[in-house]
Design goal:
The chain is built from two helices and no strands. By secondary structure, the chain is mainly α. Helices cover 66% and strands 0% of the residues.
């Protein structure tokens, strides 16, 4: 969320609509990232 806010703040469009797309893109990646076996060290 910080990255999304930072990117949005650097843009030219301060509207809520302008932050919606990047926020959705980051959140779309969250589920798959958390669904993996992140407790197992890499390479095992």
């Amino acid at each position: 969320m910080r990255a999304t806010g930072r990117l949005w703040g650097q843009g030219q469009d301060p509207s809520v609509e302008a932050i919606r797309s990047p926020t959705e893109a980051f959140l779309d990646q969250l589920g798959p990232a958390l669904a993996g076996n992140w407790r197992t060290p890499a390479g095992q």
